[in-house]
Every structure is written in C-alpha cells, then in structure tokens.
Design brief:
This protein is 31% helix and 16% strand. It has helices at 13-24, 42-45, 77-91, 179-189, 214-222, 224-240, 242-246, 249-266, 270-275, 293-298, 353-356, 390-406, 416-430, 434-437, 460-468, and strands spanning 2-9, 30-33, 101-107, 112-117, 123-132, 155-157, 171-175, 193-198, 204-205, 288-289, 302-306, 308-312, 315-318, 323-325, 328-331, 346-347, 375-377.
Amino acid sequence: MMRVEVAIVGAGFAGLGMAMALRRAGVDSFVLLERATSIGGTWRDNVYPGVACDVPSHLYGFAEHPNPDWSALYAPGDEIRAYLERVAAEEGIAPLLGTPMLSAEWDAAAERWRVRTGGAHAGEIEADALVLACGRLTEPSIPELPGLETFPGPLFHSSRWDESAELAGRRVAVVGTGASAVQLVPELARIAEVTLFQRTPAWIVPRGAHAYSDSDRAAFAADPARLAALRADLDAEGEARFASRSGDPDAAAAAASVALAHLEAQIPDPALRAALTPDYAFGCKRVLLSDRFYPAVASDRVHLAPALSAVEGSTLVASDGSRHDVDALVLATGFASTQQPFADLVVGESCTLADHWSGGMTSFGSTVVAGFPNLFVLNGPNASLGHTSSVLMLEEQAAYAARTLASRAGVRRVDPAAERAYTDEIDRAAATTPWISGGCRNWYVDDRSGRLTLLWPGTVAAFRARLAAADGSEFLPAPIKRGTS
C-alpha cells in the first residue's frame, strides 16, 4: 500500500498544473495517476486530421513554462502534447502511467481517502487529500441512433481516431458541426467525398491563423520580456471577448456581424448560406474559429445534410428522409460533459459524487464540494470558459488547492451553506446570458436541471479575485476531539 499526502488523478494540463502547484507550496508527498500509457489528456486522445487549439498558443500554456518555440498562433495538437511532455520532464514529474483510478472512498475513521487502482500499479493508495484532474472532455458522447450497430464499415468517434481506417477515395460521413468537425472536415475533403450531417449550424468567426517564422521564435527565445508582453496582450484580448460571448448587446451584435460577413464572403450560394446560418443568440453555443470550413462545405467535395436520424447498414438516413450511402462513419458528436464519468467512482461521507451532482454539478469556488472532505476538482463545476484559455482557470484552482493543503489544517469539510451560496451566485450571473436564454442547446447546461454547470459566467480576473477572497470560511470548523480542551 502507498501512503501519500495527495493523490492526483489525471496527467493532462490540470494534473501537471496541480503537481507543480503542490511543489511550489512545499507539498512533495503526492502521486499522479494516469490511466493511459502516456501523458497529455485531450491532446493525447485527439489525433484526428487537423486537430489544433483554438486558443492562441502563447496563452495556452503554463505561466511558469513559456514556450518560445510554438510554430503558429494556434498550435497543432501534437505540439501541445510535446509541450506537456517537456514540462513534465523539466519538472521531474513522473506519473504512474497505465494506472486507472477504479474507486476512491473517504474513510471517516482514518480521515483519509482510500484510492483503489488497477493496471500497471494495481493496489490501494491512502491519501489525506484527493485531486480529480480528470478533464471534462474525455468520454465520447455516442448518439442513440436506430441501427447504428448495423453499420458495416469503419465507425469511430473523432476523439478515438482509427489510424488503420483507409479513407482516401472513400465516401465518408461526419456527424456533427462542432469544434472537432470544423477542423476535421477540410482535411477529409482533401482525400475523400464527405457527407456532413448538421443538426445545428455554429457561429464561426475568422481564425486569422499565421505561422511564426524562425526569426520570430529566435526573438522570443532571446527576449523573455517580449514573450511575456505577447502573453499579456493575448490575455487582454481574450478577456475582452467575454462581453460578446456572455450577451453584452453591443459586443454580441458586433461579433455576430463579423461572423455573418465571414459566412457571406465564403459561401456564395444563398441556399447553402441559409442552411449554415445560426438562428440562436451569438455565444449560446461555443463560437468556432475557421477560415477553411466554409470553403470546404461550399466545394464539390462536401455535401451538407440535415441531422442524421437512422442507420440502415451502409445507408444513412437524414431527418428530411434523404438517404446517403457511405463507406465510413465518423462521429464528431462531443463528450459527456455535464455528467462526469469519474463521479460514479468517488464516494464521500454519505454518497457518491454522481449522487451529489444528480441535479447538476455544484461546488464552492468551482473546486471543493460539500460532503467530500479534502477533495478538490479541477476543470469541474463552472470552471470552463467560452472566451479564453482554460489553462488560466486551472492554474487558479491548483493554486487555491495547494494553498489549502499547504496549511496542513487537517480535514477540510465544505460548509453546505457556502456551496449553496456559491451555486446561487452562479445561477444569478448566468440567468441573463445566452447560455441559458439564447435559444439553443449547448454542452454548458445540465439537461436535468437547466442550470449552467460547465462555464464560469465571468472573466478569469473575476475568478482569480473570487478565489483570492476565499479565507477559509467556506470550510466547517474542525470538530473538537474528545479528551482535548
């Protein structure tokens, strides 16, 4: 049995960020568990053609590990994975790879977590605290389509890309027009005939991507202050986007105008343009960035079809009754986001985390949860962003968790009243945003409760200030033990 102060689950951005924060806070007794055989999180799992970040590279990294060598404004996925591997090596962080968390249960008598692991390091870990850094976009969402199991050809989710599938010269169907599809479809259209099934069109703005030259990268490496200034500028630009994404009338109208002009410039056919025009508020769904998607859809290599409603062998039936014969089927259908799969594995003082979140995820500070002592969740309730880099949020969460743990104040139990107050605060802030009232379905809102449970309804600066103001009153007073005074 292994005994540590902190067990961290997940070796993507969040897990590595947590490990670094603990080290900086003087907590060295921790273990980092990773179910896969390598680190990288979503950037390890997503290897589909065209995968890249839609946040500027120099903002999508750890503040303490600036990278002068990014190849472009928006880094491709393999570069981000390599960056994470390099950070882990530089920090000397060695996760237990191939070691999934099978369960985690709070032992009230011992006042610690008992984490059962499988795989390469199967056994049990005792930890004073547990940090779930499992990611929010890890488990593919597979649509319930009649006859899906009858499809005879290659069939896979975009995040589980089948490298062995021969797609060149074939008829390939892509289901979904979200972030992954917008990157994937132009690449597939270069080699295959694509049928794209769209349920709801997205708001798409110009990407304006550009590569960094050798001289750019050399200048960044030679002058760290220049690199820091670039990051600060990108941070300010990202924060400024919050207004348009969250429903500020003037900012949203201006951004929507840019998106519609982009659509008109790239889609000359009026009927196709109408089919690609959103009928809901700007920002209600994730706003996408692409300069290549519309031209691909307008080409003779892509056929746009309504939502897929059924599968009959190799024939796909759209919602308008049209039938499409294809050789391969790619599901770009998103992830299980509002109901996190890891929640079923975690048992607190009286229930599982899934039970506690049965009406939608709740927390205090988007990080700690009532009924789950010494548990910290990164990238969990209301910790995602729709306007800038999520790495900025998880760094703030990791710093808060490390600060709390470094105090070594014993068992910290969240006051249920503090969690309720924080949840009410989120609900009030979200009520007038397009995420709630914008006339669309999105992955930010819990279907069961209708609550905004994924996004933080504010800027990063506001979140930073909110956690900085946490003074420990969010935790219940430690009980007085018998025999003490």
